[in-house]
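New to this. Help decode both lines:
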Amino acid sequence: KDPDKRPQDMREVARMLEACMPGELHPAGLFARAVALAIDAVVTFMAVALTSIATVMIGQEAFHVVEPAEASYGALFLAVWWTLGQLGCEWRWGQTVGKWLMQLRVVDDRGGRPTFRALLLRYLIRFPAVPFWLVGGALRLGEVTWYFDGLGVLALVAGVLAWLWTAFRAPPGRTLSDLLTHTRVAYLISPERTRA
């Protein structure tokens, strides 16, 4: 290493480190986040439709599908694709397809990459019914499924209440999942820069 390229004093080291720090966060508003979520829903339903078509083309005998369980397989496909599209994409790339199109990213409070634990908790707070639909759709054990379906409906009601709390009580641009997991959704670039 060339000694001439080394920092001369600690002030120069501090300036170099400041350049590596994330810039100012520009939190995304709830409207931009809702549009991203709507895009994600469309992408997920398209994936479920393609999976369902593939299931029919391959033949239901390959999956040992009986008539009453067909709806449970649709719910299972939906829950799996939704989990992959939300939790999987946010963990791998920091954004879903909708967030990518809207130039948004999930970050921690300091602007860095959130941990998987924070993302998993964020997902469970945002979509509390999905785990029950995953388990209920996978099991479909006759009388046991009403239990998972009932818990799924209760979790869905809890999710709606969390969204209502977000709309009226949360700080601007933050949701309950953001506050509890110390994450936020921010613009990749300043929204003011995109308008100029």
Residues 30-58 form the longest helix (29 residues). The chain has a mean pLDDT of 78. The first strand starts at residue 104 and ends at 108.
